[in-house]
Design a protein that fits this description.
The protein is 40% helix and 14% strand. It is α+β, with helices and mostly antiparallel strands and 469 residues long. Strands 2, 6, 7, 8, 9 and 10 form a 6-stranded antiparallel β-sheet that branches.
Amino acid sequence: MSFPFDNSYARLGTGFSVRQAPVPVSAPHLIALNRPLAAELGLTLGSDDQMAQVFSGNALPEGAQPIAQAYAGHQFGGFSPQLGDGRAVLLGEVVDIKGRRRDIQLKGSGPTPFSRNGDGRAWLGPVLREYLVSEAMHAMGIPTTRALAAVSTGDAVYRQQGALPGAVLTRVAASHLRVGTFQFFAARQNLAALRQIYEYARDRHYPQAQTPGDLLRSIIQRQAALVAEWLGIGFIHGVMNTDNTSLAGETIDYGPCAFMDVWHPQTVYSSIDRHGRYAYDNQANVIVWNMAQLASALVPLMDDQDSAIDEFTQAINAMPAMIEAEWLRVFGAKIGLSAPTDEDRSLIDDLLALMQTAGVDFTNTFRNLPQSPADLAKAAGFEKWNVRWQARLSHEEDWRARMEAVNPAFIPRNHRVEEAIKAGVDGDFAPFRRLLDVLSRPYIDQPEAADLALPPQPHEVVRETFCGT
C-alpha cells in the first residue's frame, strides 16, 4: 500500500494551515472505494480492512502530512474572517498518472482548531450524498471534486435528529483553494502571505497568468462556464458561500445540494436558505458577487490600486455577458443546436415558459423532447413551438445525438438519494450501490433502471435538504 505524496501546500509554512492528525474512530468499515480513481491517482491499495483504517483516519499512509487549512468567507452575504477546515484534514497531495496535482482530504475526521465548538464529524447521510452527487457530476462531465472512499466509523454522531451513524468521506480535488483563502489573508492585511498564496494558486492552476488581473479573469472564465453547466442539469448548490467557491473551478462542498424535479426557476431546497439567496436562477448572480469578493482580496497586491480597481471592475462587469454566452451554449445544445445564436434565445426561453406552465419535469422533458413528451405536448402553444423548433433543426446535423450527449437520462434525484441514505442507516447499502452504478452512465438509457429516472410521486417529493454539518 502506498500513496505517492508530494505535499506542496504543507510546505507553505505556518499561517496557511495547522498540523492536525485525524481523530481515531472505534470500528471503521469500508462502504465504498473508488478503485478507478485510485488507479488514476497512482495509489497502491491494500485490503478492505487496511483501506478502512486509512480512509477513516486511523492509520496514516507513509508521506501523509495532515493539515487543516485556514480560510475566511462570506456566508449568506455576511463575512466571517476565520472559518477554516473545521471537520476535515488534508492528508496530502499526489501527482496523478496524467501529471495533475490532486488533494486527498478526509471529511468528518474529527475536530480541528477551526471547529468552532463543532465535533468535527460527519454522519452517514451527507457522506453518501456527496459520494453519489459528486460522482454523478463527474460522469456528466461537469468539473467537480471526486469521491475516493466512504467509511462508516462505528461511532454515533449527535445532531438535531438525535444519534446518527458516523462516517468519513475521502475527497479528491484539484485543490482546496477557495475565494475565502484569499479573503483570509486580505482581511488580516498580511500582504506577504497574500502574495505567497497568489503565487501558489497561479503556479498550481493558472501558470499562464502573469498578473493578479490575469488570475482573476481566468477564474471568472472557469466559474462562468461551471455555473452554466449547473443550470443545464437543474443543479442547485445550496450554499454558494465564498468559502465554497473553488479557485480551480470545480464544484465543491455538496451540502444541501439538490436537483430540480419540476421546472421552476426560483426553486430552493436548502433548509438554511430562508430568503432564496442561492435559488436556482440566482446562482449566476451570486457567482458574479463571489468573484467581486475575490477581486477585492486581490487589490492589495497591485502597486496602483486605483487602476487595479478599474481593471477588476471591468472584469466583474463583463462576467454576466460571459455567463449568458455559456448559458446559450449549454441550453442550445440541450435542444440540439451546435452553434446557437442570439436569435435562438427566444426559442429556448419559450420552451422554458411552456415547461413552467405545464409543470413538467426538467430532466425528463429535455431527454424526451424529440418524442414530444405527452405532458408538455398538452400545453397550449407547444404545437407552434414545435414547428419552429423543427424548422430550426432542419439546419442541424446529428442533433439527436447532440441532445442525448448533454441531456442526462439519470440524475441523483433527491428522493432516490434520500432512499439510499435511509437504507444505509439501516445497514443496507444495496440501493446506494445500485444508484451509484446507474449514475456512472447518466447519458445511457438503462431500461432495467427505469424506476430511477422517474420523478417523485407526491409522497416522495423532497422539499428541504440539509447541510448535515
